[in-house]
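note to self: the first set is below, dont mix up w the second
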Amino acid sequence: AALPEEARGAELIQQLVLERIPEVFGVASDEVQVIAPRYQGAMGVDELNGRLRAGLNPVRANRSEVVFGNRQFRVGDRVMSIRNDQEKEVVNGLQGRITDAEPGSKAVTVLFDGEISATFRGEQLDNLTHAYAITAHKSQGGEFPVVLLAMDQSAGRLLYRQLLYTAITRARHLLILVGDPSALDRATANDRPRHRWTGLAWWLQHGFG
C-alpha cells in the first residue's frame, strides 16, 4: 500500500496539473510535463499517468479506444513513441496525440508534434506509451513550458543529482518540485546514478583466459 504522504503527493500533482497551474500561471494542462524517477509507486509514472489521464481525457461515448494488453489507447490520449521507426518517421521520445482509434482492427493514429501522422496496428502498439507522466530518462532531448518533478523518498537510489539537472533543463519557463524535502536533499547529495555492474571492466583488465 502507498504511504500516506506519497498518496497525498500524487493527489497534489493531479490537482496542480488539472487546476492550479492553469489557474495561477495561465498554462494549459497539456503543456505541463510530469517527470518521475520511476514507474512504480503512488508517485510513479504508471500511477500518475492513470490519474492524469482520468482527469484530462476521461472515458466518453464519442471517444473510441483500442485495448492492447493491460492498456487502453483512447482518442485524445497523450502518448509517446518509445522506439525509432524510420518508415513512420517517428523517433524514440517523440510525443503526440491519438487522433483516431479503430477497435476492430486494433489500430490507432497519432499526430506527432502537430505534423507527423502515423498509424500503429496490433503489436506495433507496443511502441507507444502514455506520456502524461514520463521518466527523467525518457524526457531527455525534450523541452516543455512547465515541468513538474515528483520526488518521493521511496524512489531510493533513483534519486540522484543528474535527475534534478535533467528536470531543470527540460523546463522552458517553470519547474515545480512536489514531494518529500528529504528526497530533494538525497538527490542533491547523490552525484552519480545507480550503476549496473557487469564485470566487463574486470575482464578487460585481467583478460578472458
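second set (the one i keep forgetting abt)
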Amino acid sequence: SDNKLKDSDLQIERIRIDIQHLFLGKIHSIKDKLDKVIGISKHLCGGATDLAIKCLMNSLTSNGNAENYHKVHGLLMALCCHHSCSWNTYVGKSFMKKHGFTERDFQLMCCISSWATCSLRKTKNNEHIGDIPDDFLINRYQKLDLKHEEREFIGIQCKRLIDMGRINFLENEGYDAQLITYIDKSVSLENVALLATCKK
C-alpha cells in the first residue's frame, strides 16, 4: 500500500513495533499534533483491537523529566475476531465486572461469539459447510437444541456485549463512542465498526 501512495502529497511513516509498546507521543512527526490524530484500523484481530485502543488513549509524551498522557482526537476501527480476545488485553474488564461477568464468563463469551460468523449453515442437500465432520456438528448442536439462526443470534449478542465494554471504556476516557454498521452482512459478516470522538 505504501507504493500506491509514494507519489502522493501524504507523509507516510512506517513504524515496526509491537503495538503494546508504541507510544504515539514519542513519534516526532506527530508528537505535537496528538489532538488531531485519528486512529483507523481494518479488522485488527481480537485483542489487537484492545491494544490499539490503549495505545490511542495513552499517547505518552516526554517533557523534560516529566511524562504526560495525551488523548488522540478519535478512532474508527472495523471490528472482527472477537473469539481471539483475551482478558489480559481487554479494555472493558470493569464493565464486565460491574455487570457480574467473570473472567471465565468472558472467555466463554469470546468462544460463543464465533457462532456469528462460523458459516455452519446447511446447503440445499442439508449438508453442513465447513471442515468439521458432519456427525460431530449434529451431535454437538442437537445437545444444545439450537438452530443455526439461534446460534448466529447468540454469537452476535456476545460480540456486541464485548463491544459494549469497549464503548464503556472509551466513554469513561471522555469520548463519544458508538457502533456503526458500515456494509451489508451479505458482503461481510464482520460489518461493524467502532467510532469514537473526543468530547473536548
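remember for set 2: The mean pLDDT is 83.
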